[in-house]
Amino acid sequence: RAKGAGRGTACFFDAAMDETARIRRELGHDLRRAILRNELSVAYQPLIAARTGQVAGYEALLRWIHPERGVIGPATFIPIAEESGTIVDLGAWVLEQACAEAARWAEPLTIAVNVSPVQFQLPNFCEQVADVLSRTKLDGTRLELEITEAVLMRDREAVLVLLHRLRALGVRIVMDDFGTGYSSLSNLQSFPFDKIKIDGSFTAAIEHDEAARSIVRAIIGLGHSLNLPVVTEGVETEAQRLIVTEQNCSQLQGFLLGKPGAEPSSAVLPAEIVQLDSARLNRA
Ligand code: C2E
Ligand code: MG
Ligand code: MG
Ligand code: MG
């Protein structure tokens, strides 16, 4: 505890930390009732095939509208839900909503659902997924589960078994936010991933930062040599889209192509842009 001159400052920070902790506790409490009170919803963001400009599928993104505080982003409330264990219910809810939604689509597009490390530790997670698939009558091959490398930090042997069991249902496993966090290339060798998503923080930098461009090029190349399609997240500008498309990235996701929305939008690239691309790429 600080004394003397620094004391006022220390008290100020203590107070601010108390306030943050209090809000977190309060949100954690509110979150437990959010499902029952209909405060949660799912937004769908399209994933676009880079070559054709067509929608290949959607990612389900959880949304919470708090009755007093308004919109709270998942980056804020997911960690709180993970800490309190509420993520187990939230995760089950999103999975069910997303699969039911996808089962209603006219086209057999894929639906990607983010899965928390906490859910991955549930002994019955695979059964939960199998149940949802059969209840919603969604073919397992249409479901993608997005996990981050944090999942792989726990009991690696158990995770490996679980991934194989999920894939036996036809479900695809996607490595999300690749290149951040605990990235280790050996994870790509040791675990049966079906797709890699390059984190949006790299995409944001590729136009102006040679190093970011090199990293993205390397990840896409790595994906090719491992036979794994690569998605670029966070594509916001035409210049970014061109750079990753020329590097043969498989799918694109980002505000340029379509924002997360309550209704899956049928965003596609204008045909003339796709033609321009293929002319350019064929020349290359
Ligand atoms: P994520 O899975 O990497 O999802 C991508 C995030 O980037 C989403 O943020 C999306 O709205 C945002 N995004 C998409 N395109 C662009 C773009 O062009 N520019 C920028 N700046 N951002 C873009 P969101 O919806 O706020 O979600 C944040 C994170 O929260 C997700 O990152 C995911 O890790 C987590 N999350 C969201 N929904 C769920 C869920 O249902 N379960 C779990 N466990 N986590 C979730
Ligand atoms: Mg994701
Ligand atoms: Mg991501
Ligand atoms: Mg991310």
What's a quick, concise take on this entry?
This is EAL domain-containing protein. The chain is of the alpha/beta class and 284 residues long. The chain has helices at residues 7-34, 74-84, 87-104, 117-120, 125-136, 156-168, 185-190, 200-205, 210-225, 238-246, 271-283, and strands at residues 40-49, 55-66, 70-72, 110-114, 143-147, 172-178, 195-198, 230-232, 251-252.
Could you explain how this protein is built, in words?
- By secondary structure, the protein is an alpha/beta fold.
- Helix content is 48%, strand content 18%.
- It has eleven helices and nine strands.
- It has an eight-stranded mixed barrel, surrounded by four helices.
- Strand 2 and strand 3 (70-72) form a beta hairpin.
- Helix 1 (7-34) packs across helix 2 (74-84) and helix 3 (87-104) packs parallel to helix 5.
The topology string of helices and strands comes to HEEEHHEHHEHEHEHHEHEH
- Counted by DSSP, the helix tally is 11
The shape is globular
How would you characterize the largest beta sheet?
Answer: 8 strands, mixed, barrel
N-to-C span: 64 Å
Over the alpha carbons, how many angstroms does the gyration radius reach? 21 Å
Ligand kinds: ligand C2E, magnesium ion
Mean pLDDT: 90
Strand order in space, largest sheet: 1-2-4-5-6-7-8-9
Which class do the helix and strand fractions yield? alpha/beta
Uncertain residue segments: none
Helix content: 40-55%
% residues in beta strands? 15-25%
* Structure summary, number of beta strands: 9
